[in-house]
Design goal:
single chain; alpha/beta; Cytidine Deaminase, domain 2; 36% helix; elongated
Length: 517
């Protein structure tokens, strides 16, 4: 079925002139409205104004221009239906085979500071969604384009075949209904806001793939993606090698990558069962990798590794010497030699992220039975000036550096959490002990000291919350820790500070809690 006539009415005019020129060169008649028609005429395209076609001018300040039987009849008519054809001829309705429409930028308008209700309401598109829905409903005959990124493939098919394929029309119809659905949802949310009614949360996620199983083999699982998510994260990472990522690979990979993104310095993170078992920063990624692995080589067996610099052959050499078994490695890039050698490891999943950046507006979603909990992601970076020394003895500048490093790590550890860390002579930072996920903080300290062994002496310790008693501090002190950071705010702060002074401990309050459940 030859494509003869197109209706063009867009708010976003990027690329539209070039697209419509291509249509016109193929003999397609162009109908258009107001501002779009002006742009097309200035580009040298022959355009029939919709007002001239319908016989009715744009009315009521542009509120009424395409809401007319000659427009919607031309879009909705069933081409093979005898009665439809007779009625079209009787009322001088011409079939419209292509509808190119995008909508007033309602969401962008209401996001502006100081926008008033009148301006918001005037940016609710009526004619646009009506045409989109009409065209999408009649996809058997009509092509609907709502995304300027689809111009090229639509034009290509028309050039090749004189029309678009049914499969493409179906896909574009689905995209059109998705747009109007989300558009109406944004308007509904706006009214909820101005009426002070409960917010309605609708999540739009596309299925990427089914997974072999969930956390355990008896659980079914699938992986879904937010289609409007463009960040450098585990979901958007490119898999360069290896078998399909498992449910647990994705969870641990997310933890590793989000932690390594905290650091500007070259950093390496080793994660096992959703907790870091090795973290280090250094002048070079090779040194950071070596230091992070050395924190707990036993736990690093079968781990997930994330780096914030390119993976080099020196790192691959180290992995070979240490006979490291790694499930997944994630990095912004890989040298050609390193990638070639890593690909010889059949069971290693290799992920490339591209440039890393910390998304400060990220949303964190947790499910409970029958509901969801929504919060902003904890991306807060503790600043040096926020640390308040509360003991007689004050930490040195190097000790403060180590505390700031430890606080970046501790917020990525399951509560109750403590992190022991050191600053080395060359400025590198490394954790020396991790205490995670215990019901009492003193048990987390005991585990960190047990895992860290002799490396704990001379470390600083960051706690993810306040010390309700001095016992956790005393336990770490016995292992050689004499510098601490904690939130502060306990009813027993004075007693804890007094005990710290008795032990000649240096302690700072952060005023910032880092629970992770």
């Amino acid at each position: 079925m030859q494509l003869k006539r197109a209706l063009i009415s867009v708010s976003d005019k990027q690329g539209v002139a070039e697209f419509v020129k291509g249509l016109s060169e193929l003999g397609v008649e162009i109908l258009s409205t107001g501002g779009t028609a002006k742009v097309l005429k200035e580009a040298g395209v022959s355009v029939l104004d919709v007002a001239d076609y319908t016989g009715f001018p744009e009315m009521m300040g542009g509120r009424v221009k395409t809401l007319h039987p000659k427009v919607h009849g031309g879009i909705l008519a069933l081409r093979e239906d005898k009665k439809h054809k007779e009625e079209a001829e009787k009322h001088e309705i011409h079939f419209i085979d292509l509808v190119v429409v995008n909508l007033y930028p309602f969401e962008a308008v209401i996001a502006k500071e100081g926008v008033n209700e009148e301006e918001a309401i005037e940016n609710i598109d009526i004619g646009g969604p009506s045409m989109i829905r009409s065209a999408a409903k009649n996809f058997k005959y009509v092509t609907v384009v709502v995304d300027n990124n689809d111009f090229e493939r639509v034009l290509s098919e028309i050039r090749d075949k004189g029309e678009t394929s049914l499969n493409l029309r179906k896909e574009l119809a689905r995209k059109a209904f998705s747009l109007t659905y989300r558009y109406d949802e944004a308007i509904e949310q706006y009214f909820r806001k101005i009426l002070n009614q409960p917010e309605l949360l609708n999540l739009h996620y596309e299925k990427i793939c089914s997974l072999r199983y969930g956390e355990n083999p008896h659980q079914k699982a699938a992986f879904f993606k937010n289609p409007e998510n463009y960040d450098s994260n585990i979901t958007n990472s490119e898999v360069l090698h290896g078998k399909q990522l498992s449910f647990n690979n994705l969870v641990d990979g997310d933890s590793a990558l989000e932690l390594v993104k905290e650091f500007d310095e070259a950093a390496a993170v080793f994660v096992k069962h959703n907790n870091p078992c090795g973290v280090a920063t250094a002048k070079t990624i090779k040194e950071a990798f070596w230091l992070a692995h050395g924190v707990d080589e036993l736990s690093a067996f079968g781990c997930i590794i994330a780096l914030n610099r390119e993976v080099t052959e020196e790192i691959v050499d180290y992995m070979k010497i240490k006979k490291m078994f790694v499930e997944v490695i994630i990095a912004p890039s890989y040298s050609s030699g390193a990638l070639k050698r890593l690909k010889t490891r059949e069971n290693l999943r290799i992920l490339r992220t591209g440039e890393l950046k910390l998304d400060l507006l990220k949303t964190d979603i947790k499910k409970v039975a029958g509901g969801l909990l929504i919060q902003t992601k904890d991306t807060y970076i503790l600043k040096r000036e926020e640390l308040v020394a509360v003991t007689v003895l004050k930490p040195s500048e190097d000790e403060i550096d180590a505390l700031l490093f430890a606080n970046k790590v501790v917020k990525h550890v399951m509560s109750n959490a403590v992190i022991m860390a050191k600053k080395l002579d060359d400025g590198a930072m490394v954790i020396t002990g991790v205490g995670a996920g215990q019901m009492s903080r003193i048990d987390s300290v005991r585990i960190a000291c047990l895992k860290g062994g002799d490396n704990i002496a001379g470390s600083v310790m960051a706690s993810d919350a306040f010390f309700p008693f001095s016992d956790a501090m005393e336990e770490a002190y016995k292992a050689g820790v004499k510098v601490f950071s904690q939130t502060g705010g306990s009813v027993n702060d004075k007693e804890v500070i007094k005990r710290a002074d008795e032990l000649k401990i240096r302690m700072v309050f952060t005023g910032r809690r880092y629970f992770r459940h």
